[in-house]
Amino acid sequence: MRDEESRRKRTRCLACIAFGVIAQTIIIVLFVVIVMRVKTPKVRLESVGVTTLTASNSSLKASIDALVTVKNKNFGHYKFESAKATFSYKGTNIGEGTISKDKAKAKKTKKINVTVSLNSDKITASDISSGNVTLTAYAKLDGKVHLLNIIKKKKSSELNCTIHVDTKAKANTEAAATSPYPLMPSAPSYMRSDQEAAASAPPSAEELRHKKRMRCLLYVSIFAVFQVVVITVFALTVMKIKSPKFRVRTASITGFEVGSASNPSFNLEMDVQFGVKNTNFGHFEYEDGIVVFTYRDVRIGQTNVEEERVRARSTRKVDVSSVDLTSRGLPALLG
């Protein structure tokens, strides 16, 4: 019996450990799949504004301000190198601008202004006369996604869209193809004050290191809090031990005898069904027991309940037949 009980305890302990390992594995897998998964940032041409435009015969000269956006969906920042944004007409390069080296924060969109000068004398006369010159814009960003300042994953993003220049209006352009955002007018130019220039100055190396340390501590704190919450919920639900409930479910009388008025008494025989309800996440083992029936705090009968085991979160029914109850020994109370 002791060996069997020890074996059951070891099995229960191993089951709890296995459950904890599985729970931790699920948490780590979810963390890797959701947080640590590296996605390719998206580069889009959000808006284009024409500042100057001269078109005649087969020549086109223009200066445009383009707003390029870098959308980073990762949980770490995306640091990219400077790149060239080229504008071409029917495969011929007619102008280019520089996308400066920068960084897109985690789950943020970085906006970059690019100024491009267009100059070409190979525009077809039909396009000039129709007032619609179609250009193609292309750029490729190479950079790395930084996760927790530990993982660095190289990612490249490409911009490839079509621009329609209205040579008659000499004011607006339309971007199409891979640019799903609505067009916005370019911001007016103005001179920055000394305070604005100081505020827009790049941060120092010490500030960058401090931000990295704070971000790393933030990620570690979030993960630690998440683990504490999971363990607390596990302890309060799965590991919390509740007392099983023992109840009389049904009782059916099979025989009943009563005495006379001069000799009041009774003899009762019945079949009883007990219920042991276990609300724990582990099974409940109980030993042999005695159920006592009383009348006015005086014992009138009893029955035995044999040892058994109730499975986790279930109710075990125990049937006991021929329970005898008698009033012998109660003359004073019945009188």
Describe this structure in words.
The structure is a single chain. The protein has 335 residues and is α+β, with helices and mostly antiparallel strands. It contains 5 helices and 17 strands. It has helices at residues 2-34, 125-130, 194-199, 205-237, 331-334, and strands at residues 42-56, 59-72, 78-80, 83-89, 92-99, 102-104, 108-120, 132-147, 151-166, 173-177, 245-258, 266-278, 284-286, 289-295, 298-305, 308-310, 314-326. Strands 3, 4, 5, 6, 8, 9 and 10 form a 7-stranded antiparallel sheet that branches. A 3-stranded antiparallel sheet has the order 1-2-7, with no helix packed on it. The longest helix has 33 residues, at 2-34. The model is unreliable at 176-198 (pLDDT under 50).
Q: Please give the oligomerization state of what you see.
A: single chain
* Helix-and-strand structural type: alpha+beta
What's the helical proportion of residues? 10-25%
Q: What's the average pLDDT?
A: 80
What kind of sheet is the major sheet?
7 strands, antiparallel
Q: What sequence of helices (H) and strands (E) makes up the elements?
A: HEEEEEEEHEEEHHEEEEEEEH
Distance between the termini: 49 Å
Estimated radius of gyration: 41 Å
Low-confidence stretches: 176-198
Please state the overall shape, judged from the principal axes of the Cα atoms. rod-shaped
Total DSSP E strands = 17
Strand content: over 45%
Question: How many H/I helical runs?
Answer: 5
